[in-house]
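INFO batch 0412 | record 1 of 1 | parsing
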Amino acid sequence: MLNQDKTIDQKIEQLNQEIDWFYGDEFSLDHATEKYRSSIKLAEEIKKDLNSLKNEVTVLSEDFSKNN
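INFO prediction complete | emitting tokens
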């Protein structure tokens, strides 16, 4: 499943799993840079999704205010 197809909750769970990897027994310096880049990219996607959601809520809130 592509990250674009995942919910924000699923992306956050994936990010938590990636972060846990750094503290786990499977950590290796050989893969750390790759995992770090992947985690940063995922965090940026989550931030973008949250900003989009915030904008949607703001628009809905403004629309609701106009109707009252």
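INFO post-check: Residues 29-67 form the longest helix (39 residues).
INFO record closed
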